[in-house]
From TrEMBL:
Keyword field: Transferase
InterPro entries: Glutathione-S-Trfase_C-like (IPR010987), Glutathione-S-Trfase_C_sf (IPR036282), Glutathione_S-Trfase (IPR040079), Glutathione_S-Trfase_N (IPR004045), GST_C (IPR004046), Thioredoxin-like_sf (IPR036249)
Keyword Transferase: yes
Alphabetical list of Pfam families matching this protein: GST_C, GST_N
Protein name stated in the entry: Glutathione S-transferase N-terminal domain-containing protein
CDD domains tied to this protein: GST_C_YfcG_like, GST_N_Ure2p_like
Entry's transmembrane regions: none
Amino acid sequence: MIDLYYWTTPNGHKITLFLEEAGLPYKIHPVNIGKGEQFAPEFLRIAPNNRIPAIVDQAPADGGAPISLFESGAILLYLADKTRRFIAQDLRGRNETIQWLFWQMGGLGPMAGQNHHFVQYAPERIAYATERYVNETSRLYGVLDKHLSDGRDFIAGREYSIADMASYPWIVPHERQRQDLAKFPHLKSWFERIAARPATQRAYDLASSINVAPTVDAASSKVLFGQDASTIQR
């Protein structure tokens, strides 16, 4: 059994995509980040960065005590290694997957996240910041579109992998990121292939049943965007 500490964000969706694809038994523990539930002491013991997702694997492969992990990329890699699924087992294929997983973690996610903030949530509109992150999101879409233009079905080749699971949820809100998928035809085809997967549909149906209200509103914006070192030190 996997205990999944989760909210309905792109990073949260990554893990439900994997668990639904792999058929691993799991239990969701919702962590409503708009209400500050990520600061609960019991959650911080698992995720000291006060961010979702996090997991506790009650039956790790070494047969020892339960193991907890935070950071969505680390969780995907752990689950792939645990199940020996959704990551190639040969040297070159494995590293092809890992490098694109890191590309998402270091590029697409952070840049699209800043895009979301300055386009959707910033209390004052800053033209330079908006243009900076919208353009960088566009550049990253272009990188992935070009990579997919060689006829491959998925990011790491012919097989669906954790690289796809990591990136797909960050493309779902493309309209909010001011991106037009029609300008990225190879990316668009890839996106549609993943959207059509039954496990993808189950994961997103699950999300809609857990969170029926916007996470960010006037009351929650301070919780989400007003953190500094004192948040950790208190």
